[in-house]
Write a structure and sequence with these properties.
Layout (H helix, E strand, L loop, with lengths): L2 H15 L10 H8 L3 H13 L3 E4 L5 E4 H6 L5 H20 L13 H12 L7 E4 L6 H14 L9 E5 L7 H9 E2 L11 E2 L1 H4 L4 E5 L6 H13 L1 E2 L9 E2 L3 E6 L3 H4 L2 H4 L4 E4 L8 H19 L2 E4 L1 H9 L6 H18 L7 E4 L6 H6 L13 E3 L14 H19 L5 H23 L6 H22 L7 H11 L12 H11 L1 H18 L7 H12 L9 E7 L3 H13 L4 E6 L5 H12 L8 E5 L19 E4 L4 H12 L4 H10 L16 E6 L4 H14 L6 E4 L2 H7 L4 H5 L1 E7 L10 E3 H5 L4 H8 L5 H14 L2 H5 L7 H19 L5 H19 L11 H4 L3 H10 L1 H7 L5 H14 L6
Parallel strand pairs: 3-10, 3-11, 4-7, 7-10, 12-13, 15-16, 15-17, 17-18, 19-20, 19-21, 21-22
Antiparallel strand pairs: 1-2, 5-6, 8-9, 12-14
């Protein structure tokens, strides 16, 4: 007995003994348990028996099955089954009302939730719910309101002849009394011009609908009257007192404004349903294309001519930001047809061709893109026949359902190891080809779907190129087109029935084809995000099968391999290069930013291991440090051997990848790859000559050093020697090991103190000024420039390096005046010390004190020192003498000489005077 026969016999047996009061049939799960079958197999067979007419199916949740003959024989006893069938018939009759919205573009997409809210507002007992439609002008609020009214009639919640009254509140917004009178009616004399009693729109709409458009123009007094009616169903005519009137009216409102900002909160609280309608730009691409096609279809039927719209014109209509409403789009399309008709052959031609220049100017001006045929698509052709030939809007589910059901069966058999990998792949590929053949030859009309088809095709092509670069995924000439046909078929389609669990199918197959699943998911996400198009998730199953077919030579039994490295893209880059050179998807990658801990990376590795068949073994390539022990977080939880190799490089990855593709055992791969990747080095001495340089420096800071540099640069006509101002502390602390000596061939140091650099001559600034550095300067530069130039440099130095010239580079002080002031203070200090300063010391102190005063005036930070102990303390008496000597300068410039500067003066004098009493 076959499984199908066994399922039918068991169902018949159970049907004959079922309790007609408590039971209405049996689920696929119950039958499967009785026969020790898988639930999905039992479900598939029961559905086949239902199609053959021998089994009844009751579409409840869960779905019940019953033997047909048994029910007919026991119909009086099986009362619960009869009740369900009667309820089902009632629902089928009611379906006519629900179908009122069936032709609305977006009823199963962007407007699905809005329509469900509208249905709920109509159906809620006893008198429905007030409904507020919110959206930009022209998005279809009035159109949707009329459909709500038609739905209410179709579902028989109102009479067939019930009124539908429409009123625009903006017409009388400036006359509140008249507006209230029109809505609620008025008594004679209620206001000027009210010559008789009048019935209001609420009374006129009794038993039906009153639709108030632009309700935000209703004044607060009108809103207050309305929420009384919404609360209690009563109202009074304007000017009427002592009498409450009643009416059974369903209210709908519409506004283009934000309800929170334009209505009384007491009024808003009485409107439980607020339905927001998206603009044209907010609609998904499929709906926008369908709207454009539908409006052109109406024009084609009206003028009895086929309409051809250029791909560029369609692209502009899809992306124009003008207005953003559907009413404006409809008018733009009507005008484009009129322009094309007028500039074409007119009534004599068989068709009209709409080009860019036929579109309204405001639409063209609002287009933010570049007008090109960027989709490389064909023109969209719209027939003038009344038949709707927008072919990809709906799918014939029944023609492909058997393919999906059989694919589900073969996937489950693979999971239960009832078929081999080869048997599964052969059959699944046959089913894939059968589906593609049906799509290509029976379903998709590329002339109609050119924009969407070509948009998807471009993205698929781009993604496949990226996959080949990063994962070594090879594809063939027709791969792009095949995948595009597949994706177009599954746009918003629901080809599977409720018995086929898509999630289980994907989960089961992804265990076998992890890499194919990852690539399929990336492809689907790329198309979905770029075009804002939802796809039925079952398309992932077909994508996995096809991607496996174009890389069939890749072994499913090869070891898993992953690269983990520090850095934001180090691991990904190595894996990408290796996969591309190996022409196979061998390596996964986990990048480890430095702020991530090894434990966090371990969690990522653990999550990855759960998605793959770890019994094949795992090779983990890491770069260094804590990653070398990351295996400890997974070693006890997964089957399969693990190999860790450190010091990852692209060469090592290629060596490992080649051995994985050969199917070598893990230990052999590790041993041979490590042995073949020994580090080597080549030492290449520098062939480039370092540029010659002179360093200028000053132990009080870099400011004086920069001034010396400026003066020296005037001495060098050409670029034979570079002059560099450099930090004294760094120079003295690092000595010859400082980076400046690796970068330059330093010929000479000029400054206010000798940093004592080995084999590098030094000239003090005061020696230059006192004309005592000529011999050192000539010696230092003799091998750099010829004698004529040295003579010229000496002459320039003698001319430039005078005390006046050096101080002339002060920024804000007058050199003549400051020299006189400093000279007087130094003379006072000499008298106080009882010692006369030598000339070189005086020059040094002149320069230092003048620059010090300028530093204090412009508020530079104090100089800080980390010198030997004698710099930390100086004689207190000496400090008092310095303060006293320079008091006139402090008072004149309104500054205070800090202790750090007194220490510098102390050090300068001590270094240059052999007999210094302090």
């Amino acid at each position: 007995m076959t499984n199908k026969e066994a399922v039918y016999c068991k169902l018949k047996e159970l049907s004959e003994t079922m309790d007609g009061i408590k039971q209405c049939g049996f689920t696929a799960q119950e039958i499967a348990e009785q026969l020790s079958l898988q639930r999905n197999i039992a479900s598939h067979l029961l559905n086949e028996l239902t199609k053959e007419g021998v089994v009844m199916k009751i579409n409840t949740r869960p779905v019940y099955f019953l033997d047909q003959k048994t029910y007919l024989a026991r119909q009086k006893e099986l009362k619960l089954v009869t009740q369900y069938l009667l309820k089902s018939d009632s629902m089928d009759q009611e379906k006519g009302g629900r179908d009122v919205f069936k032709e609305v573009i977006g009823c199963n997409g962007s407007l699905r939730y809005s329509i469900e809210q509208c249905k709920a507002a109509v159906s809620y007992p006893p008198q429905g719910l007030p409904l507020l439609l919110v959206g930009h002008s022209g998005v279809g609020k009035s159109f949707l309101a009329k459909l709500v009214y038609e739905y209410a009639k179709a579902t028989k919640v109102i009479e067939e002849k019930a009124p539908f009254i429409v009123f625009n509140c903006a017409e009388y917004a400036n006359n509140p009394e008249l507006l209230s009178g029109i809505l609620f009616g008025h008594c004679k004399g209620a206001y000027t011009g009210a010559d008789s009693d009048s019935t209001g729109l609420i009374e006129v709409a009794d038993g039906g609908f009153l639709f108030l458009d632009e309700i935000h123009r209703l004044p607060p007094t009108g809103q207050e009257k309305l929420f009384l009616f919404l609360d209690q169903g009563i109202f009074r005519r304007l000017g009427e007192s002592g009498r409450d009137r009643q009416a059974q009216v369903r209210l709908m409102f519409a506004t283009t404004e934000d309800p929170e900002d334009n209505f009384l909160q007491t009024f808003l609280r009485r409107i439980p349903l607020v339905v927001r309608i998206p603009t044209f730009q907010e609609r998904p691409l499929k709906e926008k294309m369908e709207l454009i096609y539908t409006f052109y279809k109406k024009e084609a039927v009206a003028i009895k001519k086929d309409v051809s719209i250029s791909n560029q014109a369609v692209d502009i209509l899809l992306n124009s930001t003008a207005g953003g409403n559907i009413g404006k789009l409809r008018n733009a399309i009507k005008l484009s047809c009129a322009n094309a008709y007028n500039h074409g052959p007119g009534s004599k031609g068989k068709d009209i061709k709409v080009k860019i220049n036929h579109l309204p100017k405001d639409v063209l001006h609002a287009y933010e893109g570049v007008i090109t045929n960027k989709l490389n698509g064909e023109d969209v052709l719209v027939s003038c026949s009344e038949k709707n030939d927008f072919s990809y809007i709906t799918h014939d589910k029944q023609n492909t359902l058997h393919i999906h059901e059989e694919l589900a069966l073969i996937i489950n058999k693979l999971a239960q190891q009832e078929v081999t990998q080869e048997e599964f792949f052969t059959r699944s590929l046959q089913l894939f080809n059968e589906l593609i053949d049906y799509i290509v030859f029976h379903e998709v009309d590329r002339a109609v779907t050119a924009v969407i088809f070509n948009s998807i095709q471009k993205i698929v092509e781009h993604v496949l190129i990226g996959m080949q670069a990063n994962y070594g995924l090879k594809h063939y000439g027709n791969s792009v087109e095949v995948l595009t046909y597949l994706l177009v078929h599954f746009i918003e389609a629901k080809p599977t029935n409720e018995e086929l669990s898509t999630e289980k199918l994907i989960d089961s197959l992804s265990k076998q084809y992890y890499k194919e699943h990852k690539i399929s998911l990336m492809l689907l996400e790329a198309v979905g995000k770029n075009l804002d198009i939802p796809f039925d998730p079952v398309v992932l199953v077909y994508l996995m099968i096809y991607i496996r077919s174009i890389n069939r030579e890749a072994s499913l039994d090869q070891a898993n391999a992953i690269i983990i490295a520090h850095g934001y893209s180090t691991a990904s880059s190595i894996a990408s290069v290796a996969n591309r050179l190996l022409e196979n998807y061998v390596f996964e990658a986990i990048d480890m930013p430095f702020e991530l801990s090894a434990a966090e990376i371990g969690q990522k590795l653990y999550a990855y291991m759960k998605t793959i068949d770890s019994s094949r073994g795992m090779i983990i390539l890491v770069d260094m440090g804590s990653l070398e022990h990351i295996y400890q977080q997974i070693v006890g939880d997964f089957y399969g051997d693990i190999v860790m190799i450190n010091n990852i490089s692209t060469q090592l990855a290629l060596s490992v990848g080649e051995r994985i593709l050969k199917g070598q055992p893990l230990e052999q791969i590790a041993r041979e790859a490590v042995a073949a990747n020994v580090c080597r080095y080549n030492y290449l001495a520098s062939q480039k000559k370092k540029p010659n340089a002179i360093i200028t420096t000053c132990f009080t800071g870099i400011g004086i050093a920069k001034k010396i540099k400026i003066l020296l640069n005037k001495c060098f006509v050409n670029d034979e020697v570079r002059v560099i101002a450099y930090d004294f502390d760094r120079l003295k602390g690092n000595g010859k090991t400082d980076a400046i000596f690796r970068q330059y061939d330093v010929k000479l140091i000029i400054g206010t103190d000798d940093p004592k650099i080995e084999n590098t001559p030094y000239i003090s600034l005061e020696d230059l000024i006192m004309k005592q550095g000529e011999a050192v300067l000539t010696s230092a530069l003799s091998r750099v420039v010829n004698e004529d130039i040295i003579d010229k440099i000496n002459a320039e130095v003698l001319k430039s390096f005078t005390l006046y010239n050096v101080l002339n580079y002060l920024t804000i002080l007058n050199p003549d005046k400051i020299i006189d002031q400093v000279e007087q203070s130094l003379y006072t200090l000499e008298l106080s010390l009882g010692s006369k300063f030598p000339n070189n010391l005086k020059i040094s102190l002149y320069i230092h004190m003048c620059c010090m005063i300028e530093r204090l005036l412009i508020k530079e930070k104090d100089v800080k020192y980390t010198e030997p102990d004698e710099l930390k303390e100086c004689n207190p008496e000496f400090a008092k003498l310095v303060k006293k000597s320079f008091l006139p300068i402090e008072q004149f410039y309104k500054i205070e000489i800090p202790d750090s500067e007194i220490r510098i003066i102390y050090l300068s004098i001590k270094k240059r005077m052999s007999h210094f009493p302090y």
